[in-house]
Amino acid sequence: MSDVLNKSTVLVLNRNWQAIAVKTPAEAFSMMATGNATALKISGDDDMTPVTFEEWMGLPVLEGDNCIGTVKGPVRVPTVLVLARFDRVPKRRPKFCAKAIWERDGGVCQYTGRKLKPNEGNIDHIVPVSRGGKSTWDNCVLADKKVNSRKGSKLPEEAGLKLLRRPAAPREVPVSQLIRNTYQVRDWEVFLESRGAFDVTV
Q1: Does 164 reside within a domain?
Q2: Distance between CA 28 and CA 78 in Å, rounded?
């Protein structure tokens, strides 16, 4: 039961029904109990009804539903919440990681301009770590593995290389574009299908 309660399987919408966060069922039940959110009872893309905490506790558990055991019997785990008062879509930069560098650089080697396949590239530190370089947006670029290997612990100019452009942190984007449906929750699809370029974990 604790495993079900602590997986990030609940999508949170603002009161305009725009996706803004992901929570665990434990957090979702707390938000519902305090009146900060209602759960959506979903019976298909066109049948969605906001339900209060008290109503939710009395819903029947259907075959295929995730549920938890309580002293009053099994309770269905919500998949989507709607906040009662919050109506904005916050913005945030993507989390710094190798995947985000690939996305920022468009899968293109920043030294050769060649479009790379996933197994052909890796992340290069412009100023090598061995020479004090940091793992930051402005010091890391996508590079062809062969080029990166040749560069080694040199600066680009020392290796006869030139960057296509100076790297920088990507712009902030609506948090809805950064939400990842890690557990493939079907009820999320209608809310995530038109988010734009960053379509894939918060």
Answers
A1: no
A2: 8
